[in-house]
């Protein structure tokens, strides 16, 4: 980490458990609780901890997580006595004298710790919890900070819902600070982080160019991340829609209906399992891209943060296109519903005939609206089309799903996962699990696919169809543009 004096530094100051560490974690995108300790236990921050904002290996800003005031009233009394009868300008020297005299002593250990970087030139972010009422003893803290003469901004953090004393706090904070802003460390999006940094530039004119540079770099980096997120989603769709599960067996293995059904079930299970693994891996890439912790690594069934899997009924009830839009999209696809598991010889499909009517549950049943779509299994050498079975055996093939809503459900899940990732503040430390239960209202789908423009759906549907048919992909620029536009809409806070 660079120690250049040109790097703007701000000490984050306030009482214990007022959200200082959470604010810092959100500002610098630090989700690791070992690096920025966030805990309900009072006094977790016991020293001044540098928290740099680093991009591309360069430290752009540095924040200092301080232990907060412990004995502000006695500290101010000491300063008042020392400064009695002296001019206003002497107050800064008085604060310095206080630190020099009490440095290393237990009596004012916390006060000296937080004031040390301030008298050395750091700006001040003073954090208050507006869910608790203002008390006169807070004035002692604010007066000490005013005596330092450093640029200072107050941050109003509403920690507990139900009690709101923001108006009262604003009245008092205005007497001591250059600016007062509100910042919810658990809900702040990227735009709110940028607004807070812009406010820091306003209070510290000397460092304004450095902070402005930081904001510019962050904006570029965020746009690059959005483009990378679009690429991750496109790769997820391409991989899932192109994937085919195969298995080679001898002719004797498909000689009886029970054997055929068992093989078909195993292949279908393998297909759905692999597709869910692909989705999970791409979702993990998104988590890493936005610098979140991978909370679910312990439980393999939920490590991708989605409580309902891709083939669960609730997923198909809330995501994908509604019937009218699906009909239009289906005109392009011209595909029947269901997943076909083809048993072929030499890589070519011969006679096809249905031998298994319905395989549900773990075999990968698909849902269209609220209706179960049967999983059809086809074999060679039976049915009205006839055909020969290759003497060398047969190759079973499963996928991709021909249900016309499958790619739209997959896309909606990816977009919803992106929304949860991009809007999740790094100051949160609760377990990150996304559940779809209760999302659907009055049978309405809540995915973003249905909100696309008709021409955008056409662009995507043609791409989906080519992927499903195994055709070589042409220019994906138009597809990328559609997905990137939706991601930017999500970032801006457009409702689902």
Entry keywords:
2 domains; alpha/beta; three-stranded antiparallel beta sheet; 496 residues; six-stranded mixed beta sheet; single chain
Describe this entry's structure for a reader.
This protein has helices at 20-28, 72-83, 90-102, 109-119, 136-147, 166-173, 190-203, 208-242, 257-289, 313-318, 323-333, 406-422, 454-468, 477-491; strands at residues 9-13, 49-55, 58-65, 123-129, 152-157, 179-182, 245-249, 341-344, 353-356, 366-368, 371-373, 377-379, 394-398. It folds into 2 domains: 9-203, Rossmann fold (3-Layer(aba) Sandwich), CATH 3.40.50; 221-491, no CATH class. Strand 5, helix 6 and strand 6 (179-182) form a beta-alpha-beta unit. With 496 residues, it is an alpha/beta fold. Helices cover 43% and strands 13% of the residues.
Q: How does the SSE layout of this entry go?
A:
Blueprint: E1 9-13, H1 20-28, E2 49-55, E3 58-65, H2 72-83, H3 90-102, H4 109-119, E4 123-129, H5 136-147, E5 152-157, H6 166-173, E6 179-182, H7 190-203, H8 208-242, E7 245-249, H9 257-289, H10 313-318, H11 323-333, E8 341-344, E9 353-356, E10 366-368, E11 371-373, E12 377-379, E13 394-398, H12 406-422, H13 454-468, H14 477-491
Parallel strand pairs: 1-3, 1-4, 4-5, 5-6
Antiparallel strand pairs: 2-3, 7-13, 8-13, 9-12, 10-11
Helix pairs in contact: 2-3, 2-5, 3-4, 7-8, 8-9, 8-12, 8-14, 9-12, 11-13, 12-14
């Amino acid at each position: 980490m660079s120690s250049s004096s040109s790097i703007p530094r701000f000490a984050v100051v306030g009482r214990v458990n007022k959200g200082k560490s959470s604010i810092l974690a959100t500002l610098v995108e630090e989700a690791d609780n070992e690096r920025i300790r966030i805990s309900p236990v009072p006094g977790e921050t016991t020293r001044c901890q540098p928290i740099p904002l680093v991009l591309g290996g360069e430290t752009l800003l540095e924040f200092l997580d301080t232990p907060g005031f412990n004995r502000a009233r006695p500290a101010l009394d000491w300063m008042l006595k020392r400064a009695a009868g002296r001019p206003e300008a002497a107050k800064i020297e008085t604060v310095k004298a206080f630190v020099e005299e009490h440095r290393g002593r237990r009596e004012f250990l916390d006060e000296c710790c937080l004031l040390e970087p301030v008298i050395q030139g750091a700006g001040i972010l003073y954090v208050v919890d507006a869910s608790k009422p203002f008390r006169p003893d807070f004035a002692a803290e604010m007066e000490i900070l005013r005596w330092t003469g450093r640029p200072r901004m107050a941050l109003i953090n509403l920690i507990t819902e139900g009690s709101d004393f923001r108006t009262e706090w604003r009245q008092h904070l205005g007497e001591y600070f250059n600016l007062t802003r509100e910042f919810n460390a658990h809900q702040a999006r990227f735009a709110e982080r940028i607004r807070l940094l812009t406010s820091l530039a306003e209070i510290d004119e000397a460092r304004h160019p450095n902070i402005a540079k930081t904001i510019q770099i962050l904006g570029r980096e965020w746009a690059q991340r959005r483009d990378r997120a679009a690429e991750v989603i496109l790769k997820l769709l391409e991989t899932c829609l192109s994937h085919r599960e195969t298995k080679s067996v001898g002719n004797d293995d498909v000689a009886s209906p029970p054997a055929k059904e068992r093989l078909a079930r195993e292949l279908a299970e393998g297909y759905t399992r692999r597709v869910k693994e692909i989705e999970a891996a791409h979702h993990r890439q998104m988590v890493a891209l936005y610098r979140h912790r991978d909370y679910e690594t312990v439980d393999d069934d939920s490590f991708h943060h989605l409580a309902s899997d891709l083939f669960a009924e609730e997923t198909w009830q809330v995501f994908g296109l509604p019937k009218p839009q699906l009909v239009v999209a289906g005109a392009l696809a011209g595909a029947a519903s269901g997943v076909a598991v083809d048993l072929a010889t030499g890589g070519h499909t011969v006679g096809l005939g249905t031998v298994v009517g319905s395989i549900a549950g773990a075999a990968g049943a698909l849902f269209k609206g609220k209706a179960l779509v049967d999983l059809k299994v086809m074999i060679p050498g039976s049915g009205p089309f006839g055909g020969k079975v290759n003497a060398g055996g047969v190759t079973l093939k499963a996928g991709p799903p021909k249900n016309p809503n499958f790619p739209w459900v997959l896309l909606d899940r990816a977009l919803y996962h992106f929304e949860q990732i991009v809007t999740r503040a790094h100051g949160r430390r609760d377990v990150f699990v996304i559940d779809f239960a209760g999302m659907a209202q009055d049978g309405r789908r809540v995915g973003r696919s249905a909100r696309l423009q008709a021409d955008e759906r056409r662009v995507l549907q043609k791409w989906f169809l080519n992927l499903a048919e195994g055709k070589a992909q042409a220019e994906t620029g138009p597809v990328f543009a559609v997905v990137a536009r939706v991601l930017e809409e999500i970032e801006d806070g457009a409702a689902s």
